[in-house]
Structures
1.
Amino acid sequence: MNTRPRFTHAYDELAIVAEHVRAQRAEGDPALVEQGRMTAAVAATRLRVAATIAIDWQHYAKLRLPPIDATTRPERIESIQGALAGHRQRMERARQAIANEYGEGFLVRSMTELWALVDSHDPSTARVRPFLHHEGCTAALEAMLWWERMPRDRGIRFLTRMNMDLRAMGYVVQERAAA
């Protein structure tokens, strides 16, 4: 992924989506364990890694450094990729539901137009909201994955530390200086 994702600097939104993924795993994985579709150990690891990612992004959104933990970069990347794959599948199913109900031509609209339709509370656009939800989650997870793959000297932790230091030295008055 060489191009910068759309939500790269939308830290609050990334924190919300990371918490959403953590909650999905906390709520959904126990049922998968009960059904025998996942081991308890795998479920525990998925929840641990998702919780760590959620905590990290909550800190970054508040311009604070998260605590260092034992979660590895490969674990984090795998977790984000898994969540991303799930949201891409759900987004595609929602896109197909829109096409089935409203026709393929409906999907030529821009994201802004789709949000405007949803915001108008038009009941005929009920299928659009799930698509927009999963599209937004997908964009946020792509940004998280981009940050996770970034070399450490250009990563989100480094930039957060730099912004904290610049603010503490009084060089900047705005929330974030380096990006």
Note: The radius of gyration is 19 Å.
2.
Amino acid sequence: MGLHEIFASSGDNYEYVYAESFPAAMEVLAHWAPAVQGAAIATLIGTFDDPPANSVADLIRTRLK
């Protein structure tokens, strides 16, 4: 088996990570998933221009409509 390439980008920044095996690639993704998820949610919430909602769930529901 060859190397598994993982590419991550954010605007002008980008990073390549290589893993020797599929399980190693899954381990890398598992370690980075919480940070990526948090950044995605922060970006989503930052796009709201409406008045404050009662909860984060309300914000997400409003944005997804």
Note: The first strand starts at residue 4 and ends at 10.
3.
Amino acid sequence: MGVDRRINADLAIGVLLNINDLQTESFDGNITTDGTSYNLGPYLAYQLSPAWSLFANATIGTANMEREVLMFKGDGDSSSYGGNINLYGDYPLTEQTHVRPKLGINYQKEDIEDFTLKGRLASFYLEPEIEGSRQESGQALATVELNTLFVGAGNEVYRPYVEVGTYYNYLQDKNSIYPEWQGVFRGGLRALLGSHTQVDASLGYESIGVSGLDVWDIGLFVSHGF
């Protein structure tokens, strides 16, 4: 969610809060993570040309992740900071249907606190301690979105969309479960409610073409201009 103020016809600045629900599975479900992260920071949106715009933000955040490794379970906290820059195109195919190419790059540094896994191995109850770590990650992306326009009875504007593309993980920890390349598919609905409020809800699958890894992403972004 975000709150922004339009400075002029081309520039808006604001503050955003991202709440992300993340679930991953690897090694045929023997290793799973499930948790929620919260990220807060400033952002700007700038219209570069009639067809292209730029969106950039910087955030600090915190997360709690539940981890399961075979028969062991545990949870731990982490803190992070990072930022991203995205370029969005917008080209009409018809009056209602548009195609939106997107290019982006992001960076994140995360500090993971120590945590404990608990479980039974045969008749033994074990609590292995997992030492905390510091990780850096960076990702470049190229996607294309197809959307179409519907207008509600109260003049609300709705744009359902589908997005496909690829991610390139150019920077990651040596123990990362993510591959160098991964495909992504996302579907969602973007809505303009009145003249000031925009909502974007989406569900994405981010491990196309990657064996042994399932990554789902649920997103909800609410922006209110003032």
Note: The CA atoms of residues 188 and 202 lie 4 Å apart.
4.
Amino acid sequence: MLTSYIAVSMPVLLYPVFWDTIFTVAITFYSGLVPGLIVAAGFNPLMTVLRCAINGTAIFYYDFFYALCGMVIVVVTWAISHNKKEFFFTRMVTILYLLIISLASAFASCLCASLLDTFVRLVF
């Protein structure tokens, strides 16, 4: 719910940060793969419906497919961070792991969105 509130209020707050991704990664890191996938799969369709209701526009169902990008971020985050013992060696190791998670999930999410734009958009 917090991610939905922040996403709706983001145009007002003018923050250039993807809060939904930050909270999805945090949930995955602390709670595991399944809760992260639930949040990632539910957030995008919920926000699409809310945005269309607030703006009074029609729902474009293609936008629901972007939930796959969030799910890819969750899987990459979980794959790197499921063994949390390594995070607590030193502060530098923790920072390097977080940097690796950020870069790998950003690359995977961009690749997923590009594939969606390239192939799925042709159907719609």
Note: The CA atoms of residues 62 and 102 lie 26 Å apart.
